[in-house]
Amino acid sequence: MSLIQGETIVAIATAIVPQQGSVGIVRLSGAKSLEIAKALFSAPGKQDWSSHRIIYGYIRHPLTKETVDEALLLLMLAPRSFTREDVVEFHCHGGIMAVQSVLQLSIAQGARLAQPGEFSLRAFLNGRIDLTQAESIAELVAAQSVEASQLALAGIQGKLSSPINELRAACLDILAEVEARIDFEDDLPPLNEAETKQQIQAVLTQVENILATAEQGELLRSGLKVAIVGCPNVGKSSLLNAWSKSDRAIVTELPGTTRDVIESTLVVGGIPVQVLDTAGIRDTADRVEKIGVERSRTAAAKADLILLTIDATTGWTSEDRAIYQQVKHRPLILVINKTDLAIPQDAYPSEIKQIVHTSAANYKGIEDLEKAILSLVNQGATAADAEIAVNQRQAAALVRAKASLEQVQETVANQLPLDFWTIDLRGAIQALGEITGEEVTESVLERIFSRFCIGK
Length: 456
Fold this sequence. Notes:
The chain has about 450 residues and is of the alpha/beta class. It has helices at about 35-40, 95-110, 120-125, 130-140, 145-155, 160-185, 195-210, 215-220, 235-245, 285-300, 320-325, 365-375, 380-385, 390-415, 420-435, 440-450; strands at about 10, 25-30, 40, 55-60, 65-75, 85-95, 110-115, 225-230, 260-270, 270-275, 305-310, 330-335, 355.
């Protein structure tokens, strides 16, 4: 992502949905923002154009003076703005025409269309936020649950960057002590090796603790993909409808009603769950149903968790056993449905540890199913209690920091010269710096900010 300092950028900062948005915002950032605002905005009376003011007026074409919209203008002048540049926002009426007109007029006045994430990138480059905070902004926009949004807000507030900065500072202090003994060996007392080893271990322990949040963070951000599989007419679609409290899937007594994969998104214990209701798996000559069966097998192969659903009235059949052989290598819960019609039998493979009884027709057993899912992914109440959780990029940097610190410990144990200590200490410092952006390449920045929406 190329960034030319001094350029003024513009973008639509709100989602524009015809007939569904009451306000549309066009945001500018850069040296010409205020100049463009004055060229396009006509404010009646003697309104104050100083920073952090909202002005009422009209957006007009600078040449024809034709009124484009009645609007509000928000002024946030440098350095008291998100980007630490002059920022102005036109708050227009919702709808595509007004905001597109303001966008095009701003470009005609000298602004250029912002690249994805460029407002946040400027905030990072100008020292307004660090890299963990920038990533948390994108995560907040993409959050699919209250817990995920709280996690993102904690990141924006610096609750991840703060301990990372402390760990990096601790490594810098250790490095300074070691290098001082190398450069001024005759003027300083010997290095307290026992104390230094304790300091390295303390940093390593904290790195491991933060790294341990990666799996939980991935679950809260990306969620879990769950596939309901089984023979035709065991109640898979009824289970989806009962679970989602909606009529997402067509339910009949005819086997093979579901011909395609039906999706529904739920939140279980703070974790977004994408539930896939699949076509009943069986041998069939029906060409359309056969396609549905193949899609069911594909969905099962890609799912994080399988809900193998069987009919309590028929028990464990040879058809169920055949499906089980196809999916048993995946994390799996056996769901025995229709328990209102028959008492479940116990003739199931002993290796299946998670078994849940449901009556989808009566909305029973859904809570037990959710508890089993949370138990299987080692979540539950702790998922909502997490204050920080690293993402994949941050976890990769922590893994490198951990490896460098472990290498320092090995170097110390092998009684190698102090020069060798410094090599891996610098590696740990660099890896920790990559997390917050203290040390980061342009390619990494481009990869991170390209995932943002245009107006962020």
